[in-house]
Amino acid sequence: MPELSPRRRLLVLAICCMSLLLVSLDNTVLNVALPSLQKELHASTSGLQWTIDAYTLVLASLLMLAGSTADRIGRRRVFTAGLVVFTLGSLLCSLAPNLDALVAFRMVQAVGGSMLNPVAMSIITNTFTDPRERARAIGAWGAVVGLSMAAGPLVGGLLVDSVGWRSIFWINLPVGLAALVLTLRFVPESRAPKARRADPVGQLLVITLFGSLTYAIIEAPHAALSTTAPFGALALGSLIALLRYESRRREPLIDLRFFRSAPFSGATVIAVSAFASLGGFLFLSTLYLQNVRGLSALEAGLWMLPMALPTFLCAPLSGRLVGNRGPRLPLLIAGGAMTAAGLLFALFEAETSNATLVAGYVLFGVGFGFVNAPITNTAVSGMPRAQAGVASAVASTSRQLGQALGVAVIGAVLAAGVGSSSYAERFVQASRPGWWILTACGLAVLVVGAATSGRWARATARRTAERLEEAEIREAAGADA
After folding, report:
1. Which residues of the chain are under the pLDDT cut of 50?
2. 429 Cβ neighbours under 8 A, 6+ residues apart
3. First and final CA of the chain: distance in angstroms?
4. How far is CA 357 from CA 154, 304, 334, 384, 427, in A?
5. Do the Cβ atoms of 128 and 11 come closer than 8 Å?
6. Does the first or last residue of the chain, that is N or C, have fewer Cβ atoms within 10 Å of its Cβ?
7. How far apart, in whole angstroms, are the C-alpha atoms of residue 448 and residue 140?
């Protein structure tokens, strides 16, 4: 990629952030619309889970393929294709006649979304080569998540109350088209110096693993063990086969050597834990505010502002802290705040008092605002720039997988607890185990963040990067010979 002027770099960052806004805004807006979907399409709790998880699962399954493909054939080319498919999928979702069609069209959306976030992060990584500049750029990238959380519930609530749930997909159309035009005009093409070969077997194993695991979790409260157990066994078998196959492949879909870096492994665990907490938190909060408290979609969106605004404000601060002092402090703040938020609900029943409910939302917003920048920065900073697309795709995959699992597990726990009794009467008690699970996710962010951000961990990252670069040199020399 040619060296760009500071103004052009900021423009490229803005375009990439528009793609993130598309994907993240879509999720927050949809959460506010869940009760309306439930009534109009007669959806069960598992049906609501699938409207979210069909998207996140396809996204998680294809992110690594999109990242490596972009490194191989061109990042702008793949990014442009993603904008087209995502915008088309949004249009189809707005026209869905029933729940099954909506789930299918959400999967089309996800195919496009898989070409956006990891590729955009790869573009940012190769545009901002100075570590401090890159950390600040990633902080701005993370702030967009906060912006989507702040704007999503309000915009979604207003649209759902005034026009209907279908209108939440319309907002993607002008943003997607604008991002497409700007990308074609201003984003330069770039690719990795050495193209990586496709890995169809690894890709199939990833899809089988994620899909069968999520299906087993979501359907467990409603189906017999004889129905869900085979899917659990299939997930375990796919995981074992994936690890064995990828470790022997010269150019794997998932380069297992990345995980020799303690910060990279830690970032993966933290991403799964933090986004599982986010998925579960939004799922529980939205259903509680509208189905138990009886609020409208707009009123529920206003109630979620104490969570959204701290996320928006803390994300750029986290990026600056990562750039100036490293990821350790932001991760400790994030883990501590998310753990405290979970405990407020699990131990002190925060939802029974307005003051404690707001306090829980604020704490979670602070924690989530601080967690995103160190995840992304740690995942890509210790890797060779030539593999930035693959490394950032693993981080993005971890986020989406975490969110899918969070919705699946928390929804399953809620469905099992509510049963056939009065929904409102049983909701608070049935959600208690879910809050304990979210507390454990916050604690995982705290403990793993502290353990993998020290000097020894950074040393493993340096050694891993050196070995990867040496391996690339040897492979290039062998190919030339």
Report:
1. 420-421
2. 417
3. 27
4. 18, 10, 19, 44, 15
5. no
6. C
7. 24
0.70 surpassed by pTM: yes
Query: CA 73 to CA 195: how far, in whole Å?
Result: 8
CA separation for the pair 475, 481 (Å, rounded):
10
**What pLDDT was estimated at residue 420?**
45
CA 245 to chain centre: 26
CA atoms within 13 A on the CB side of 32: 35
CA separation (Å) from 12 to 38, 92, 122, 337, 338?
Answer: 39, 29, 12, 33, 32
Which distant-in-sequence residues (6+ apart) come within 8 Å of 281 by Cβ?
A: 307, 341, 364, 406, 438
Residue with tokens 């993130």: 20
Rounded Cα distance, 226 and 466, in Å: 48
CA distance 32 to 148: 13
Separation of alpha carbons 268 and 60, rounded Å: 13
- Here the tokens at position 445 are 């962010």
CA separation for the pair 183, 50 (Å, rounded): 32
**CA–CA distance, 474 with 234 (Å, rounded to integer):** 37
At residue 394, the pLDDT reads 80
- What was the pLDDT predicted at 374? 86
Q: Residue 476 corresponds to which amino acid? A: A
- Cα angle for residues 111, 114, 116 (degrees, 5° grid): 120
Q: What is the pLDDT of residue 85?
A: 96
Contacts of 406 by beta carbon, 8 Å cutoff, 6+ apart? 275, 276, 277, 278, 279, 280, 281, 283, 438, 441
Neighbours of 89 (CB within 10 A): 25
What pLDDT, in 10s, does the model give residues 429-465?
A: 778 898 999 999 999 999 998 888 777 777 787 777 7
Please report the DSSP string for 121-173 in residue order.
HHHHHHH--SHHHHHHHHHHHHHHHHHHHHHHHHHHHHHHHHT-GGGGGTTHH
Name, in order, each residue with C-beta under 8 angstroms of 290's C-beta and a sequence gap of 6 or more: 34, 35, 296, 297, 300
Structure tokens at 98: 């029933």
pLDDT of residue 108: 94
Packing angle between helix 388-418 and helix 423-430, nearest 10 degrees? 130
pLDDT for 478: 60
pLDDT digit string, tens, across residues 356-410: 999 999 999 999 989 987 887 777 665 666 666 567 678 778 888 898 889 888 8
Q: What is the spatial distance between Cα 101 and Cα 93, in angstroms, rounded to a whole number?
A: 8
Helix residue ranges per DSSP H, 187-304: 200-219, 225-248, 262-287, 297-303
Task: State how far the Cα of 226 lies from the Cα of 230, in Å rounded to an integer.
Answer: 7
